[in-house]
Amino acid sequence: SKGTYPHYMIKEIDEQPAVIRKIVQNYQNDNGELEIDAAILEEMTASDRIYIVACGTSYNAGWVGKQIIENLTNIPTEVHISSEFGYNMPLLTEKPFFIFLSQSGETADSRQVLVKINALGHPSLTLTNAPGSTLSREAKYTLLLHAGPEIAVASTKAYTAQIAVLAILGELAGRRKGFALDLDIAHELGIAATAIESIIDEKEVFEQLSVTHLSTSRNAFYIGRSIDYYVVMEAALKLKEVSYVQTEGFAAGELKHGTIALIEEGTPVISIITDPTTAGHTRGNAQEVISRGAHSMIISLDGLDQPEDAYVLPKVHHLLTPLVSVVPTQLIAYYTSLHRGNDVDKPRNLAKSVTVE
Ligand code: M6R
Fold this sequence. Notes:
Strand content: 15-25%
Structural class: alpha/beta
Strand order of the largest sheet: 2-1-3-4-5
Radius of gyration: 20 Å
Mean pLDDT: 97
Largest sheet: 5 strands, parallel
Low-confidence stretches: none
Order of helices and strands: HHHEHEHEHEHEHHHEHEEHEEH
Number of helices: 13
Distance between the termini: 30 Å
Helix content: 40-55%
Bound molecules: 5-amino-5-deoxy-1-O-phosphono-D-mannitol
């Protein structure tokens, strides 16, 4: 039930720190060490390329997963939209390993890919929130998200849960490959959970920002680079699906190659800046839109912040910044939808689980 919450979406946003802690607990053995089925790690690390296949928010989580897995395991990883992959399959390597991301485990677009790769005899792992779901039953292996039921059509806690489980998988696979990783992912996930709590404690900041800058605008942009680009794709999907504001999530450097033509007086442009290597470049892009009249709002990571920033995120491990940077964007989507008078939990034209291709 919603309890005292007005909507499932805000309840599920609030649950994220607890979900991350529960995931860590669920993947710890009696000695307090992270552990997953050794057969998964064996097959995954024997692979020469990982293919992540998913739709919507799960697809966006997949891009963060690619960053984490490549970083920790050195295995090249591709991310694909299910409905494209099944009918226009890329050339596969000799030893592919498939990871399906699906909160519901029932997404037909993803299932048709699983059926095809099962017929080809390739190993697969489903990360899902739904034990016993179709994608879980039909894949060789399953890892559960342990996020609890996600009722709001807009996915929030499943995104962060997928990233947390992928991070655990990445660390264990990296160790299985023999890498001496200078990383304690369980500890880092705990830090991220606490950081999310502090952002949620300040949710009025994002309500105010939504009321002032998004509740009447026709369109909006999120921009970011590198790992922040992956997050802005999810930020844009969330805002458009619940608020109906036409939103694009763009690689910041790509804006000037065409899309900047859409910037008008007052167009909201939200930049996410957590990646030190590209922070200066993204700030430059924010300046470019400001000089064309945009209303720029920068969400930056502690240590990379500037006095003019709209919000500063607590510092977390560099592979886990999406866990914190996505939260303001979920809150912005929620409050923009709320103040536009939309049905927050059941946005028009959408279903929670999409069981047709
Ligand atoms: O259950 P799945 O993770 O397979 O669902 C995939 C998408 O349909 C889902 O993420 C959708 O994009 C949500 N409405 C996003 O909030």
